[in-house]
Specification:
alpha/beta, Rossmann fold, Dehydroquinate synthase-like, alpha domain, 2 domains, two-stranded antiparallel ribbon, about 50% helix
């Protein structure tokens, strides 16, 4: 059965951050916990956001790691208890946003994050979580309106909680906050936004509204990602990429595919998610072409290429300066069987348009070296 549901209030445009104080009031928050990272703190963006929050004075946590960890969660929960917090503001990319969802979940439900792992049925236990305001500073993951939180546990394993109850109440998407994002991060996050549109459009699930949104996001990202990378202060490029990212987040409910199924276990080795997607998605598209030829042709049409879709994407990845293989990341090829096994069991593999078993994943990973 198809699920078609959109929940967040989204303020989108240059200057949208000026609405922060009124949105804090609208949710009735008295002591929000603002979660971000050191990079955002040092960039000056945090200071702008704190000014926009006045007269509110959020409790600050700036220690989010590149891949949010259970240790980060424990530190945030300690602050939550110490200060009597009643809601979450997240500022940054996918890592602070995922951490914020985890805080909103565990602060209201108790237990450990692993108790809510989708792989063991734990996510079905999730009810109403603490109120959240999400403020993205990168155009990529779409996590600000997504229903999933990905966490690295203290034992090093990745854990994913997925439930629509975790979607942020309010999103403030201000492209102004992305103008200072460095080219490499613009590229890695942007390719992730593009991939969400591509993989969800090819997903085996049926959701026509999501298909339409996915195609619009792909169209925008295909036209503007390179400009956003090479012309960082191009305001239209930043606007278009943030919209593509939002749209990519909106369609995640349709399910992703094999590129993300492999990226999840590879992420346990601390590689950047978007960089992995840029490497993994071209061979996955080649693998899927026989299962969804008509949809592949539609995608080729919207990105305006006469090439095979996987070749077009490989050229784009090279143009924006991302590595073209796992070998360039120092990945140990002897780990391929282990990663393939995990990918085959990942929940995102279920909606890939062509069924992939362990042997298929081993081949895809070798092609990605």
């Amino acid at each position: 059965m198809s699920l078609i549901q959109y929940l967040s209030k989204i303020h989108f445009d240059f200057g949208a951050i000026s609405l922060l104080a009124s949105e804090i009031d609208a949710l009735g928050l008295k002591k929000p916990l603002l979660i971000t990272d050191k990079g955002i703190e040092q960039s000056g963006i945090l200071e702008r956001v704190l000014d926009a929050a006045k007269p509110h004075k959020p409790v600050l946590y700036t220690g989010t790691s590149e891949n949010p960890s259970e240790a980060n969660l424990e530190e945030c929960l300690a602050l939550w208890e110490e200060h009597g917090c009643d809601g979450v503001i997240v500022l940054g990319g996918g890592s602070p946003i995922d951490l914020g969802k985890a805080v909103a979940l565990v602060s209201t439900h108790g237990g450990k994050f692993a108790d809510y792992d989708v792989k063991i049925g734990g996510s079905a236990k999730i009810g109403t979580v603490a109120p959240q305001i999400a403020i993205p500073t990168a155009a990529g993951t779409g996590a600000e309106i997504g229903r999933a939180s990905v966490m690295t546990l203290n034992n090093g394993l990745k854990c994913v909680a997925v439930n629509l109850k975790m979607v942020a109440n309010t999103v403030i998407a201000d492209p102004e906050l992305t103008l200072s994002l460095p080219p490499r991060l613009t590229a890695a996050t942007g390719i992730d936004a593009l991939s969400h549109g591509i993989e969800t459009y090819l997903s085996s699930s049926i959701n026509p509204p999501a298909d339409a949104i996915a195609l619009d996001g792909v169209t925008r990202a295909a036209a503007w990602l390179s400009k956003a990378v090479h012309e960082g202060h191009n305001r239209q490029a930043r606007w278009e990429m943030m919209m593509a990212s939002i749209e990519g987040g909106m369609v995640l409910q349709k399910g992703l595919g094999s590129a993300h199924a492999m990226a999840n276990p590879l992420g346990e080795l601390h590689y950047h998610h978007g960089t992995l997607i840029g490497i993994l998605l071209p061979p996955v598209l080649d693998f899927n072409k026989q299962a969804a030829p008509e949809r592949i042709d539609v995608l080729r049409s919207v990105v305006k290429t006469d090439k095979a879709l996987h070749d077009w994407l490989g050229d784009l990845v090279a143009d924006i300066g991302l590595p073209n293989g796992l070998g360039a990341l120092g990945f140990d090829e002897t780990l391929i069987p282990e990663i393939a096994e995990k990918a085959s069991k990942d929940h995102l593999s279920a909606t890939n348009p062509r069924k992939a078993d362990v042997a298929d994943y081993e081949n895809l990973l070798r092609q990605s070296m």
